[in-house]
Amino acid sequence: MFSLVFCLVVSTLNMGGKQLRTYWSRGFCCEREDLRLRGICFWPFCRAFRSKLRWESKATAELKASTVEQIWPFIAEFCNLEKFFPAVHTCYRKEGTPGQPGLVHYCESKDGWADEKLLSIDPINHSISYEVMENNLGFRNYVATLDVLPTEGGGCKIEWSFVSDPIEGMKLEDLVSYIDDCLHFMAKKMEEAAQGQS
């Protein structure tokens, strides 16, 4: 006779005003027989739960001197990261049609490489979503969305949200800090490019 225990564990950490969420999906606690039979889910020892751990967060960068219409084309191009992303020296279309879901680009930096697939693109709401596919950077099941939104005063902001499996050897707050730094670097470069075109 045995029992299966369902549980959902949610933890929230506030860091510098940002809410970092780590959550466990519903699953079976099935490895510790002594705890299972007593109806206790001792999740730190349960690989079934550790395998379902997911990371989720968001970073934002404001561009006071540029409009949505000026910044959106840089985001929508998708295969231009070598112009705007720190340390990326190579980015090119690998397969698919430019501006269409299914487009895959290859990016390489001093830290490693990744194939990234465009999942959706919305020119009306100025939003794209993509997933990291094959890579040597440790990303698994990483999906991100970039939104370009208007702000008061005529400027705009870029919001970068993501959900991912945990990255081995890295904490969630480390990844959020890295993405926040990259986004602000990217926003600065895009604003400079937009001003150069005006």
Automatic annotation (TrEMBL):
Gene3D superfamilies: 3.30.530.20. InterPro entries: LFS, Polyketide_cyclase/dehydratase, START-like_dom_sf. The keyword Signal applies. Keywords: Signal. It holds the Pfam family Polyketide_cyc2. The keyword Transcription regulation does not apply. Residues 1-19 form the signal peptide. This is Lachrymatory-factor synthase.
